[in-house]
Specification:
alpha/beta; 4-stranded antiparallel sheet; Rossmann fold; 9 helices; 11 strands
């Protein structure tokens, strides 16, 4: 359906006519950036997006704004734009070729509360003064994590754009895919006082939550918040079941050095 080389990557859109599904791949179909079911376009796929919604359980109950670093097929901004109509959704995407593809093939809406900007994610955060209740870092796909989006200095910048009680949600590749994931994890732990990891339904991804606020919830409070999200915002994903998945990455993370910006010369 589409196969183009951009300034940043090779993008391919493929449709499975039997399954009635459409996929966005990058780099010769090595990595899937997103997909949509043409039968059930409101479904959230790939699986990590469903687990990313766990961030809403811990974020402020009525978020005024959310930020998405990385667009891909735009599945999560599309899903949340109708469920949080009073919340401003900002999306920053470095590749100018991605938003038109998301709109043409993956039903990214022109919603009044959804703003898509072609910007490099860190530069946007550095120059931004408004604060967000929920920040999704969705730029870590594949085996090559952009180091400038994972350094301790960047963690300081992320904390600055978080509202009190705000949550950063990071989609991280599993260690088998990205060898430096242990350093990324160590850096998040050094940059935020509270970090939690959640498994996804696919072994290739891990969801990390980071915040200056406490991320521990007793089971009763967890169930209550999940129920409130279902009633108030039509979050139809079984977040309780996702939260109960076995912990990812084993019980003891491997020791690894923190990541830092390269010194200026």
């Amino acid at each position: 359906m589409e196969d183009r080389r951009t300034a940043f990557q090779r993008l391919t859109v493929v449709e499975d006519t039997k399954r009635r599904e459409r996929y966005l791949y990058s780099d010769n179909q090595r990595y899937m950036q997103g997909m949509i079911s043409l039968r059930r376009p409101d479904d959230l796929d790939p699986a990590y997006l469903r687990s990313a919604l766990l961030g809403l359980v811990f974020a402020p109950a009525q978020p005024s704004s959310m930020l998405f670093v990385g667009l891909g097929a735009g599945s999560l901004p599309r899903y949340l734009s109708t469920r949080y109509p009073r919340t401003r959704l900002d999306v920053v995407e470095i590749d100018p070729e991605v938003p038109p593809i998301a709109r043409r093939y993956f039903a990214l809406p022109a919603a009044p509360n959804l703003r898509v900007m072609v910007r490099e994610g860190r530069a946007f955060i550095q120059g931004h003064t408004e604060k967000y209740a929920f920040v999704l870092m969705d730029a870590y796909f594949g085996g090559e994590i952009p180091i400038h989006l994972a350094t301790l200095e960047f963690m300081d910048e992320l904390r600055r754009v978080l509202q009190p009680g705000g949550v950063v949600v990071a989609n991280l590749p599993a260690p088998a895919i990205a060898a430096n994931i242990w350093s990324v994890l160590a850096t998040y732990r050094a940059g935020f006082p509270h970090v939690r990891l959640f498994a996804t339904e696919h072994p290739a991804s891990v969801i990390l939550l980071a915040s200056s606020a406490d991320l521990s919830l007793d089971p009763a409070t967890m169930r209550q918040r999940v129920q409130q999200l279902r009633i108030r915002h039509r979050i139809d994903v079984d977040l309780g079941a996702l939260a109960a998945l076995p912990p990812p990455l084993g019980s003891t993370p491997k020791a690894a050095p923190e990541l830092h910006d390269e010194p200026l010369h």
